[in-house]
Amino acid sequence: MSKKKRIRIKDIAADAQVSRGTVDRVLHNRGRVAPDVKAKIDKTIEKLGYSPNIIASTLAKNKEYHIATLLPSPDMDNYWALPQIGIERALKASKDFGIHVDQFFYIMENVNSFKEQADLLIQSNPDAILLSAEFYRESLSFYKKVANLNIPLLSINTHIPTLEKVSYIGQHSYQSGKLAGRIFDIALRNKGDILMLHLGSSVDNAPHIMDKERGLSDYFQTKTNPYNILKEEFEDYANIDRLTTFLYNIFESTKNIAGIFVTNSRSYYLVQALELLGYHDLCIVGFDLLEENCQLLKNGKIDFLINQDPIKQGNLGILNLVDSLLYQRSNLKTLYLPLDIVVAENVDLYMQNEIETFVTL
Amino acid sequence: MSKKKRIRIKDIAADAQVSRGTVDRVLHNRGRVAPDVKAKIDKTIEKLGYSPNIIASTLAKNKEYHIATLLPSPDMDNYWALPQIGIERALKASKDFGIHVDQFFYIMENVNSFKEQADLLIQSNPDAILLSAEFYRESLSFYKKVANLNIPLLSINTHIPTLEKVSYIGQHSYQSGKLAGRIFDIALRNKGDILMLHLGSSVDNAPHIMDKERGLSDYFQTKTNPYNILKEEFEDYANIDRLTTFLYNIFESTKNIAGIFVTNSRSYYLVQALELLGYHDLCIVGFDLLEENCQLLKNGKIDFLINQDPIKQGNLGILNLVDSLLYQRSNLKTLYLPLDIVVAENVDLYMQNEIETFVTL
DNA sequence: TTTTTTTTTGTGCACGAGCACATAAAAAAG
DNA sequence: CTTTTTTATGTGCTCGTGCACAAAAAAAAA
User: Fold this and answer.
1) Which residues contact residue A22 at a Cβ distance below 8 angstroms, ignoring those fewer than 6 apart?
2) What pLDDT digit, counting tens, does each position of B258-289 carry?
3) N or C terminus: which one in chain B shows less Cβ crowding within 10 Å?
4) CB B172 to CB A345 under 8 A?
């Protein structure tokens, strides 16, 4: 509760008996300061403990920053509406700092639209980039182009570990597979087989999906495994009839399935098909708190959802970029967000939080 | 991607052909403006869409705010070190806005120190208050004193619903009891009894603990309950020998206990005692990600921890008060944070997030 | 009408930092 | 020992808003 006032440049100048301008040059390493004077000022700064007033600095700089995002369009995939909420919230908090967000959307599962939007993004000449690269190969060439620009780059949702220098905020996909394993282990009690279901296309070009697969397998590798694990992929998931037929065939050949792991946010499609088939006692583990999924969770049709917090991904993604722009420190690093186990009893609390406007500072 | 510039007071003044000062008076309802002029300016504001630049406003106001906190001392109870992390983080983000945090700590389970610190707090004449009132009766009288001050007041961790006007950020205790019920239901599979254990004193003066109790009971009320639920309270929990004896007696009289629900963050004491007694196969559900608890979770000695996110409670608590001070809007409301189910497979992700410095905007 | 009072409107400085430019001091060239 | 060049240091304006005070206009009193 000491009553010390915040130290300003002016205070340092007075203490070191120089002008504000000289202190300013020392602080920003602009040179043009006599060595002995610089030493003296450095000492004073150390002594008084200066930290810049970001408020005043922002106002004085009067600079505008443009953050460009490159994400899948929410129109095609409900999941991608969630990061938007976080981005919006971050923008609200930082628009007074001169931050603008220019959004570029590509069509999920359409490589060309990715390339196209990527080029448009680069043409827009942004000060920082937030992206989720859903295509492994194409994203590599994008990274290469961006590398020369020397601007902060951060990826969410899809971690490409090949490029360590690119920082990432999002789920630890491998670990989420392991977590799913644990959940099945608790819920199934050594009875029945587990079906791992990829509802979507070109899994081989999406490393994060394969990581989940490995995670689940590895979980059971460490113990004497009482479960068989089946892997299936189905592209035309939105066609419920075809999905139903597809599942029917699986159940015909494998009678013992007790749990199904849907490796993305589309478990609500699966449930529709299972309803048609009349399967009610399966343990379903899926991802993400889409409205549809949550409803089924409450009805007991889905047992567990693993939340990868896409809202927070968007929110922290932008805020981190803002931070690195304003403070021009490259603090960007990789951050794995928590994986929340969501059941009927706590889903509302997660949902409320997602709707609730957070503090807009 | 429209290129519209941010509207300033100056722009409104120009458009309405008045001076900045007049616009300022309209914006702040300071009066002293001719009615027709005010109407004109209001229309222009509407037309151009002004929103104040909080950066410039903060700088110009040059005002210092003092937020006082009244929380249990972390020295007595590790749990209370966690909100501190969140408070520290919030302070870092908002100190440039002239925010100061003055902390008052009371000794847990010592009513007098609460009253004493509460008085000191009021004497310090704060601009806003963050508190956790662990004593039901005493907190009521504190609320009464504070009500006259007419300053923002927000409570965390302990919700006193009797006073609806006091906003709250924290766990939904009742729901956390229900969640524990569900967890036992999944893990125990209709076998054995559940011991609900309060490690601490004067539960009758701590409504949030009683809410957890009700939640657990109610969960099983809705279904044909295969479990017996025992309730026990033990005050001298830090004395492992005595705790061990206490538990020994319980197990002697009740042979069928399969799960233990520790209603606060002190499950690591329980595990110490259970080790001495040689019980290894019980399903333990506790609260909060204390270092000690997390270690036991990874070792498999604790099965589940429910995270009430005390860090976020402290963080959002302060940030909300900051928000209401800076924007002088009373946006304070009650927010129930998510209840995270934490197991060995996701605990590290929660811990990493707690250590990791978040964006300091 | 003139003077006084009241109401309305305009202006200038401050907040703290950034940056351009002016001035002063020291070093190099004449 | 000047003059020129280089280096070092100081000053003044800017950002957008808030607020005190000055100035002007209108209304009331003389």
Assistant:
1) A13, A33, A37, A41
2) 999 999 999 999 999 999 999 988 999 999 99
3) N
4) no
